[in-house]
UniProtKB/TrEMBL annotation:
This is Signal recognition particle receptor subunit beta. Its main location: endoplasmic reticulum. It is found in: Endoplasmic reticulum membrane. Coiled coil: none annotated. The keyword Repressor does not apply. The gene is SRPRB. Keywords: Endoplasmic reticulum, GTP-binding, Membrane, Nucleotide-binding, Receptor, Transmembrane, Transmembrane helix. GO terms for molecular function: GTP binding. Belongs to the SRP receptor beta subunit family. The keyword 4Fe-4S does not apply. InterPro entries: P-loop_NTPase, Small_GTPase_ARF, SRP_receptor_beta_su. The lineage of its organism: Eukaryota, Metazoa, Chordata, Craniata, Vertebrata. Pfam families: SRPRB (PF09439). It comes from Ficedula albicollis (Collared flycatcher).
């Protein structure tokens, strides 16, 4: 009986050592590695729960922050420190993010961004649509510093450019703001060394290329998804009216 099975067992051993089985094992190993990498990336993303509100002074970040949390208007002043609160993006209480309003003053904004950038799942860069034409170079300068930061490049948090104060007649449109920012950022990357430095000024490696080499810069070339939205934290009826934040609120649901 044993002697009769021996040829079959030998054939089975040869099959197990054959190229077909090896191919299956390699494929299974590749699937396992892919799954582990996916779990690692998802784990890192889920640990980043912050949505940072960035921008220059007087862009309307703090009023935007207050409106998102309470819906009510409040008088604000230039912030000298950060403010944070849990924001529930839907009726499902388990779906929330931490909104962090960062100071926009030139002497403070990079310091506070350095502190919170690693925790950012997403960033809202608030632009004063009324003063934009006057401030475009300063806006682009700050945005450039954010986009070439090594941590931001590595984590690639979703980015929303919130074109605020659309209730004012002289406000620039989101389309025009996008075009002007792309033009200014293109100029900045040509005139500067785009090394991926940390926001504290320390170098972290070789040169970073903002966008694609040899092509005019546009936001689609960045590693993170960039969107533009028009909004008004004040609202068309001022203190008594509601804010126009529908586009921003829908975006927050997507990134939560």
């Amino acid at each position: 009986m044993a002697g009769g099975l021996e040829p079959h067992l030998e054939a089975l051993r040869r099959e197990l050592h054959g190229p077909a089985v090896l191919s299956v094992l390699v494929a299974l190993l590749a699937v396992a590695i892919t799954f582990l990498v996916w779990r690692f990336v998802q784990g890192r993303r889920s640990s980043r729960k912050a949505v940072l509100l960035l921008g220059l002074c007087d862009a309307g970040k703090t009023l935007l922050f207050a409106r998102l949390l309470s819906g009510r208007y409040r008088d604000t002043q230039t912030s000298i420190t950060d403010s944070s609160a849990v924001y529930r993006v839907s009726q499902d209480k388990s779906t929330n993010v931490t909104l962090i309003d960062l100071p926009g003053h030139e002497s403070l904004r990079l310091q506070f961004l350095e502190r919170f950038k690693a925790a950012a799942r997403a960033m809202v860069f608030v632009v004063d649509s009324v003063a934009f034409q006057r401030e475009v170079k300063d806006v682009a300068e700050f945005l450039y510093q954010v986009l070439v930061d090594s941590t931001v490049l590595r984590n690639a948090p979703a980015l929303l450019i919130a074109c605020n104060k659309q209730d004012v007649t002289m406000a620039k449109s989101a389309k025009l703001i996008q075009q002007q920012l792309e033009k200014e950022l293109n100029t900045l990357r040509v005139t500067r060394s785009a090394a991926p430095t940390s926001l504290d000024g320390s170098a972290t490696g070789g040169p970073a290329q903002l966008g694609k080499k040899g092509k005019d810069f546009d936001f689609s070339q960045l590693p993170m998804k960039v969107e533009f939205v028009e909004c008004s934290a004040r609202g068309s009826k001022g203190e008594e009216g509601e804010a126009d934040l529908e586009g921003l609120e829908k975006w927050l649901v997507k990134v939560a």
